Every structure is written in structure tokens, then in C-alpha cells.
Amino acid sequence: MPTPAKGWVKPELRVSIMRVKHLKDTGCHAVEVELDGQKPKRTAWVDGSNDKEFNREAGFFLKGDQQGNNPEFWNKAFVSL
Fold first, then answer.
1. Contact 20, 32 (CB under 8 A)
2. Is the pTM of this model over 0.70?
3. Which among 63, 75, 77, 80 has most CB atoms closer than 10 A?
4. Domain extents in the chain
């Protein structure tokens, strides 16, 4: 298995959920984000006491090595979102 180059930092993709509209009930809600080949990430739960607009974040540390997380991978990831 190839080892990462010295000084290489594992890429991270951060997704911010700015607004969620048309929720069907008034209970607690979370948003789950799934990126191909990665584990799903879920934002914190939000209940009715929060404003309709809120900012929650889900972070992905992308698995793979330096060769596996190349620009072609990033382009595909952003197109898929």
C-alpha cells in the first residue's frame, strides 16, 4: 500500500446546510449527506425552537491515499453533490 507523501494532509470536505424548507412536521430534524464511497454524515438535530434558517455543518475526512484523492476525484465529488 503506498504511503502518503511527507507533509500531505488528508483532504476534508465540509458541507454547510443553510436552509431546509417544506418540512412535513414540527418534530426534530437532521440532514444527512452521503458522498459516494464515504460513510454518511449527519448534522446536529434541530427542533422547533430554532429559526427556520440555520447553519449546520457535516464534515467528511475523505478516505484513500494521496493518489486516490486526486483532482479528478474532487471534480466528481462536487458534481455529485
1. no
2. no
3. 77
4. 12-80
